[in-house]
Write a structure and sequence with these properties.
Length: about 120
Amino acid sequence: MGEPAWLEEAMAKYKRKLHHVKLKPQLNKLIPKIREKNAVAQAHNFRIKMKVKTILEAEGIYSDFHVAYYAYSLALDKSQRTLKFMVDLIREHQILRERWQSRGLDPAILDKIDAVLIYRSA
């Protein structure tokens, strides 16, 4: 059966596009923007984790389970920031709650996290 006639040319083109000598200047232009966006995102995620951590410590949740609650809170925050319409937000929240409750997270704790993190509501 053999290789298609175009494959060798396509592979050579792909290698030229990804050659490090060509990519290095392009990446050097992008790195300052990437670092700035990364710093903003890390600060935002840290702030959310600290809000959730106070709830979890007040409720006496073992630190082994903190990661799951953090993952829920970050997913909830992302949905609030990225979805435009309220119907999408409500549906995504229902999906997140079902997913994380089925993994064993306490619904009462999730309600407290929701009260702190949900800023877009009807």
